[in-house]
Amino acid sequence: MFYLWIGKLCNRIIVKSLTQKMCDICFVTHLFSFYNETMENKYLVCRILIGFVLISVITNVVCLFIRNSVIQQEKLKAEYTVNSTIDRVEIKLESYIQKVDFLKKTIESGIELDDAYFQSIASRLYGDDPAVKTIELAPNGIIQNVYPFKENQKAIGMDMLAEHERKEAATLAKDTKTYTLEGPYDLKQGGKGALLYDPIYVNEEFWGFSILVIDWDAFLDEIHLSDLKKASYDFVIWKKDRSTKEKIVIAQSSKNIDSNTLLIKCKLPNNKWNFEIVPKQGWINTYVIRSLVIASVLIDFLVTAAIAQFEIRHRKDLEYASQIEWQAKKAQEASAAKSRFLFSMSHDIRTPMNAIMGYTELMEKNVGNIEKEKDYLSKIHSSSKFLLDLINSILEMARIESGKETLNIKACNIFDVLDSLNSVFEKQAEQKGLTYQCTTKIEHPYVYCDQIKFEEILLNVVGNSVKYTKNGNISIHVEEVESGQFQCIIQDTGIGMSEAYLPHAFEDFSREKSGTQTSVKGTGLGLSIVKSLVELMHGTIEISSQVNQGTTTRMKFHFEIAKESELEKNQETNIIDLKGKHILLAEDNDLNAEIAMTLLSDYGLIVDHVSDGIACVKQVKEKEYDVVLMDIQMPNMDGYQATQKIREFSDIPIVAMTANAFEEDKQKALSIGMNGHIAKPIDMDKVISTLSRVLTFKCPVCGKYTFQSGPGSYEICPVCGWEDDKAQYKDPNLKGGANKLSLKEYKEQYEKNHE
After folding, report:
1. Per-residue pLDDT reduced to its tens digit, 140-160
2. Which domains does the chain have, with CATH numbers?
3. Computed from CA positions of residues 396, 400, 401, 402, in that sequence, does the dihedral angle turn out positive or negative?
4. Cα–Cα distance for residue pair 60/62, rounded to 1 Å
5. Three-class DSSP category at 36
């Protein structure tokens, strides 16, 4: 079966050989695409392809010639086989004609045939031919005499010129005065048979018919149609209906026959049969064709490979030189880009650094002048924040360009994003005397997206509008144009951008006007980051602008629809009183340690300091602390290693306080066993919030720390299962809650189970 399938496949390949060779050409084009990319002169590939095409055409012509020759020989054999069958049909029909013709001539000679005389003559004509079913006489077309009588007496009285199925052929025989063969029919006397009509005329007057009924199945056996099957041929014999011209099948080997048949016509008395024949396995010897196809493909590729090998070796030195030149050019471009980046970055970093150093020097000269000290401190803080934003922007651009920036897809509420946006900019716009408007047309507010990056995009774009608009209005419109398709349009009446600058708006460190011209600070990285983030989220961004007319930014996003139930509930952390909490600070930088200890002490926290991981582990073993603030990059033992060591003997809350500020750094810290993450430079609001979260509640039963519980709340400890409420927390002997035990009883039971 496998070889048969291969043979048929090869047959199709040859039948459509020129078309299939085009596929081969496409394959070779792909094969040499590597060279096409690296060679300056593409003429090499063209020559190889031309050679391949020429070889393919030659082998195709040869294969087609052989194929056609084989088909022609097979058709000659099939034609001879069919003609042999037709000869047998004609011989049989000739013998039948002689039988009906004898009766015809008897009547035309004037002899009157009574039924006894008819039976006598018909019995001799009947003979031993199994295909002869009935001999009939039909004066004026009405059957009156039949032989054998007993089996066929039901036919007596049938008017052949009036009976629906038979009248057309009988009338044709009468009108043409010629033998007419018609059928097969379902016979009145039973079975299926064909009728041979012989019209009888006496003195030019129509007398009737001499009819021979041919047993159809026996007739097919007599002409040896089964020999065609034995010779592995499929066939169908058909004729056309005289009235409708429809195709009527009178014999066939099977219902499903290949359409690529050989048609041979067989002329019969007043009729025509069509023989269609085809070898069961097609006209082609599949093994020969398979060999030809394999040989053709091998020749094509071997010759093409030889040409390619020669051409490629000839071009090898030139390609190598071209590649070296290309690499040198790329290196120069990279070096130039690096220099431009460092120049721009150096300029933008020096500006806030100059302010920080300058105002620090002014403070030293004006110690005791409270008003000036406050003013200088405010400007130092503003410049520091600008410098931090610049560094964060540079790091984010580096992550995006290196492909390390990824999306954190979660269910979120677009209205929450817009509420956060409005809370930031409504006040700023009001202070500048601007009209601020945010409108929406959203059917599905709950979507899957990276909420943080989506907020960052909107914050950057709207922030630019607020910064560069002195008067007028700012409008934000978010619309769901189709299900899951969102469009954000931010318009302002600010200073705008020139048409010449617009193509450069998304370039790094690109600003049409400097800060001295606009009195607005900016890194020139905002729109570059926005475009990269939009593309990371598979969205699009377009900007249109006119000088002094304003700017319009259009962004399109596709978000999958989410359900409200899929949103993660953001629980606000309850800020607790941290006074008296004992903290161990692991920090190798003395300056950072001094700042952190001072800030933490201002909140009433007791802080001990160690400078590496080894000392941190030792200190936790020797003293009892409420929490550890752990730097990551420390000498001797880093923060990750120290955490793993501590987790071997203690479950004390550990919070990373590190300059490793990216999401993957946070996830790594949590996976190591830390309880939280604070990024440097530290924001004390975030520090206090994080400490409140990890120090909120220490389970009174197992002594483990849990989140968001404690006095005044209701929570189940994930370690021991103790369910606490306010009353039980204050009175350890009070029974109640889901535990049905007092704190004292539950603790005794827990300790007993864990002895």
Report:
1. 989 998 988 888 888 888 888
2. 286-395 (1.10.287), 406-566 (3.30.565.10), 582-753 (3.40.50.2300)
3. positive
4. 5
5. helix
